[in-house]
Amino acid sequence: MDPTTTGQTASATALRKPGLLINGNYGRLWAGQTISVFGDFIFDTTLVLWIAAGIARGQPWAPLAVSGIFIATTVPMVVVGPIAGVFVDRWSKRGTMLAMDALRAVLVAFLLLISGVVSLPFLPGGHLPLFWQLGVIYAVVFLLNALSQFFRPASLALTGDIVPEETQARAMGLSQTSMSIAMILGPTLAAPLFVALGPEWALVINAFSFLASFLFIQTVTAPVAARSVSDGAQASLWREFGLGLRYFLRSRVLVVLTIAATIVMFGGGALNALDYFFVTQNLHASTNLYGLIAGVMGIGLIVGSIVAGTFAQRIGLTRVVWVSLMVLAITILFYARMTDFWIAAALVGFVGIFQASLNVAVGPLLLQSAPREMIGRVSSMLNPAITLSTLAGAGLSGYLASTILRGFSATVLGMRFGPIDTILMGAGAIALVGALFAMVGLRGVRSQIQHAATATGEVATTVATVDMAPDAIMPREPVLS
Predict the structure, then answer these.
(1) Is this prediction's pTM over 0.90?
(2) Domain spanning 230-476, CATH architecture
(3) For the packed helices 168-197 and 24-50, what is the interaxial angle rounded to 10 degrees?
(4) pLDDT 10s digits, 371-417
(5) pLDDT band at 20; cut points 50, 70, 90
(6) Residue ranges of domains in the chain
(7) Which of 56, 77, 114, 467 could form a disulfide with 65 if both were Cys (CB 3.0 to 4.6 A apart)?
(8) How many Å is the Cα radius of gyration of the chain?
(9) Residue 429 burial by Cβ neighbours in a 10 Å radius (0-12, 13-18, 19+)
(10) Do the first three CATH levels of 1-226 and 230-476 match, i.e. the same topology?
């Protein structure tokens, strides 16, 4: 494809008034990702049911077996994610996404071999032993998530290529909306589908969702890959990784965003780990009502996605980020003091609105805070930090609730505190520190564009004269190689 022609096409697209799905390229990308995300939610729920109610049914180690899925999901984010960004920046974004979708479809289809749909030769009863079944599932989940570490930053970069900057928040809002709908419908359909038909059909649906994504992405017209080194320079994995890391550390926006998100999600990890116990013990609700919390959160996410997708760019991306973090932290503090289920559920829906606003703002902020040739590395460095912080927060809160604060009870100013709500209050306070850090660090910040030097590997910094204000668009010069 001729880069000049591509640039002219992109310019013509930007001048036209954006439609419901912004433009044809993004509309096809969005359609493929919507189908894929729906398949993912069905697949994720089915995996838990398959292990808990199938492979490990009645076994004392069933909870540990289910937690193995979580480990196999998060380890690739930390281990593979940062390095994956280097390759994503080197490769064609569209080609990377196509390859990852094809490989993920094959991996999910491979699980059909151990689901019982076919009899395996040379094995007693035609099936793998229980622990081998678990081992294969964990291995496939690990590989799927390793491939996702390449797919996600490539998808973000491709969105930046095909969507004009002034509508990028709207694009993120559309993606968040489809994900929120899938969050509600996917798990709801997965359980009866598993009970009636077994895990096989969920595997087939997810494999075909990857194929559908592949076909839609195949129709997207995109510029060729950007490179952070010149054609004459010898690319080095660690050199490019180091170049991306130095760029990341010299960007005030990226550093503040990472530190703030890490602090907030350390507190958020406690909510993830203890929310079930809070609902059943502090809110005195039945286990059946616990699932309603996720549905209310999904509704809030949909509302927040629509509102933020429309107004985030006008309000200012950095302002949306720190305001959303502030509201999330304060809401956790209020949530920890709740004793009525329905009021608490309403608060969860309110949280969903600002969680979606945060998600909608972060994507365009990353795209507008880095040159195109470093988007993969920039996005791949943020996620592992947040993941590790969430795991640490969940682990610490679980330890405190099970040991030091087990049976804890105190009354302060007429308010009674137990172990779970005390930990959640602490988590809210920690999250509030992160929100305040983001407010101070991002308020009035001036955008920075840093371009990688092609010969020496040093980072040259150019400070833009445009504030991250409501209608400001940070200048960025894509490099087509």
Answers:
(1) no
(2) Up-down Bundle (1.20)
(3) 30
(4) 878 888 888 888 888 888 888 888 888 888 888 888 888 888 777 88
(5) confident
(6) 1-226, 230-476
(7) 56
(8) 23
(9) middle
(10) yes
